[in-house]
Amino acid sequence: MCRWIAYTGKPVYLDTLVTKPDHSLVVQSRHSQMNYTTSGELLSINGDGFGIGWYDKRDTPGLFKDDLPAWHNTNLDNLCHQVQSHTFLAHIRATTTGDIQRANCHPFGYKNWLFQHNGHISHFDKLRRPLQLKIAPELFPLLQGTTDSETFFYLAISYGLLDNPKAAMQKMVREVLQVLSNFDKDGVLNLSCAFSDGRKLYTLRYSYNEAPMTQFVSNDSGCLQEFAEDKPQIPAASTIIVSEPLDNISDKWTKIPNNSFTTVFRNEVTTERFLDD
Amino acid sequence: MCRWIAYTGKPVYLDTLVTKPDHSLVVQSRHSQMNYTTSGELLSINGDGFGIGWYDKRDTPGLFKDDLPAWHNTNLDNLCHQVQSHTFLAHIRATTTGDIQRANCHPFGYKNWLFQHNGHISHFDKLRRPLQLKIAPELFPLLQGTTDSETFFYLAISYGLLDNPKAAMQKMVREVLQVLSNFDKDGVLNLSCAFSDGRKLYTLRYSYNEAPMTQFVSNDSGCLQEFAEDKPQIPAASTIIVSEPLDNISDKWTKIPNNSFTTVFRNEVTTERFLDD
Amino acid sequence: MCRWIAYTGKPVYLDTLVTKPDHSLVVQSRHSQMNYTTSGELLSINGDGFGIGWYDKRDTPGLFKDDLPAWHNTNLDNLCHQVQSHTFLAHIRATTTGDIQRANCHPFGYKNWLFQHNGHISHFDKLRRPLQLKIAPELFPLLQGTTDSETFFYLAISYGLLDNPKAAMQKMVREVLQVLSNFDKDGVLNLSCAFSDGRKLYTLRYSYNEAPMTQFVSNDSGCLQEFAEDKPQIPAASTIIVSEPLDNISDKWTKIPNNSFTTVFRNEVTTERFLDD
Amino acid sequence: MCRWIAYTGKPVYLDTLVTKPDHSLVVQSRHSQMNYTTSGELLSINGDGFGIGWYDKRDTPGLFKDDLPAWHNTNLDNLCHQVQSHTFLAHIRATTTGDIQRANCHPFGYKNWLFQHNGHISHFDKLRRPLQLKIAPELFPLLQGTTDSETFFYLAISYGLLDNPKAAMQKMVREVLQVLSNFDKDGVLNLSCAFSDGRKLYTLRYSYNEAPMTQFVSNDSGCLQEFAEDKPQIPAASTIIVSEPLDNISDKWTKIPNNSFTTVFRNEVTTERFLDD
Fold first, then answer.
1. Residue from B52, B75, B84 to probe the interface with C (highest C Cβ count within 10 Å)
2. Are residues B47 and A44, on separate chains, in Cβ contact within 8 Å?
3. Which molecular-function annotations from GO does this UniProt entry contain (chains A, B, C, D) (predicted)?
4. What total of structural domains would you count in chain D?
């Protein structure tokens, strides 16, 4: 049960979205106002690690992750103040599966790709082995942590993410659902993911046997104004997608429907149906 | 704005109080139900470090501290499961002054003494220099962090804590109040401290220009039962003092009055008036 | 390329062996005088994490591990000063495979068992998948890190470590050798392990296609005297086994032969041939 | 006993100097070939923290520091691969005074200034109080750690570093020497510092009662070639100053004399005598 934001457009300093707004991702890490409950438990804290992944001039993206709370993190504050990026992901973690360790923090990176995830799957402890066996053997040694999220990412790569992201995600979800329903036909899968190759930004919203996680998009340059006293603007022709609407929602934000695959390229947001069945 | 517990009596495993109860100190570190607001801000998380200090067979106490959240901390869980102690302090931190670093975590240790503190003083940044100048020069090099709490502890040692704890604390508070009121006569001092030499356990509850922090004591062996499903007993003839009553209060707990100095020795709890003026 | 010690006998404070001697394990973590070179590289630092595992009164052992250097670690110093144990393992890590993370630090724990390892296997990245597939499916979810050592431990458990340690280790080594030699018949396996159920202490020394790691044993109560100015004694009727002889070797230490399986029980040290073929 | 590098010139990626060369600063953190001994002790490891401070487009510099070894640090590797800077400092720490904590890591930052230091002063524990009392009271609350280096930095700021760096450093050194010699006329002061406002780069080399630390400068674009197999060039018209000559020295490097104050501005290196007496 994590939180994330994803941005693509004109280069901005990361602090514009990650640390500065009064209801920024980092502020949300301490107390949020949505998604408080999952199976009756209070989940108001995302203190189990954080990460930022950003594209700048290098072939591969930058990645800064730590297994500490995002709040009061001087390195994170400082870095977000310095780093500009045209396309970046940022994530705060509340563990559902997997220990508190850097290897379990998002975003995950592979070559020029970044991936981050909010959600969960039932019985991951039991399903980890059969799911990881489906990962391409040459990718298996790259597994560093113990999360469902990293497993989903390497499955998607195994199924062709680099060539056809939507088809690879469809195959990944279908394979995961098959393994899950073989084990427990009432099992839950819930995915709200963002990923990118540095050129296009993609998100997936899909749930099975449970109400879906939220996902919101905006390319209104005033979409942050209600969250920050200094009324920041994001550049025109830029797009933000968030797992939660930075705590408050206004008509500047559009809810992305469940069972959808979204592609953002040059400020054009295309949302398609994800799975037909 | 931290939380702490202190125990003295028959040796118990630390997990009995620190990690096992459903409303244990560690559970409280994630969401508490009291003291939510100080100057209007939500303070529901104590994720800025933790510490345990315990007396066993050695001349000096054990001390395990880290600048991480207490929740999901495998080392802390494991240690509390192994370590038995007749007298121990445990603390979770929500920073008011001082960075997130181990040197700012409680309890603080000096020779055979341990000290932990919940509270704050106005303008500590401004008062740090005049207050630290009053610390005995030979103790000054021992300052490792940047907190008001560590400063109060070394001031008290400078004023004779090892020989006469109550008199030293009185002098410490009077000196601090003088420095504070010289700077701002409306300034606030709020102290809820626990400290020990391994033989006696002491606590102080004192506030100036503000409602005092809470402090509760129990030597009822059933005092934990409402907090834990497995209805743990603490040994007979043992005493617990807590900064918050493990979230819920029952008649097994006694509120310690403000402006009081408490001494626990061989299960006898003596609460005296602290400052007369 | 790590270092470890293992002790069983009369309870001692851990600092006697881990932190106090002038050539203690912690001192060795900064500069060692043996095993400097493996494939031509200088390996004088074991700064990639440490761990101690000890048996006291609980059913399961204590375990304190961190992914930091052992030197200057106040928590480790403090803990080793407080904790007494009749049987304990201690380890400092220099990474060969696996990231710097707590989950890759030794000793590894399972129920009442502890396991630590010095050594390596060729091509572990490539062999990780086929080796981990041989782990019992119900144990697979317990894998937390990415080391060969943890893989060997869970393989041994899968093959009956809890019931017959020697037979389980034999089967583990045979299976590993088969996977290895299928991939590269010149591949290297080198194992110097210590493990315990809290009652008996076991070590294994085995190498394939390479000169074996060292392993030394002593139950001479003066065996530490040449390493520490204050001439500490270990209790009579106690046994120490070390991966390196605390830097210097004297006739108080016995070299354990290669291809051997050692059992220590009530101060009796039995060394048997490990694999016949 | 630390190590540092400082660069100013055409923007380069930090990895060019910090992490990539075969004898880069990070490689040096594991085993160095100079300055092995200070007062007879082996000092081959700089594993007590690291930091990089860099100037890019913001008014204040970026700063990334951690109290971990620099080697195997994925965040540091990654950041140095992404970040470009025209002027930067980088430091690896081997503690002489001050605990292992981020607040004791270099570079230290104040407004647009960065400062890093290699060296030591005798009896710092004893001198810390009288030295810190000389820091301007309004700067005192900014002290975060316990090092001589941070104390020297805030003393220099107190004496006008921002307006006249050389005069401020002269006054700082004179005041420190006075406090030191009052306490012990045979006491040692050894300073090899680099500092910058983002426009000019300064270094100081000064020692008292001891052989000075080394300091080397180069603006030869081939000065790195002997340290890295891929023969990197630094841009023409750029300057590097290092506390140790990246392990090997060639005629492309010039030794900076003791008792000197160096200013680098637009690739012009000016070295002046520091103290006349």
1. B75
2. no
3. transferase activity
4. 1
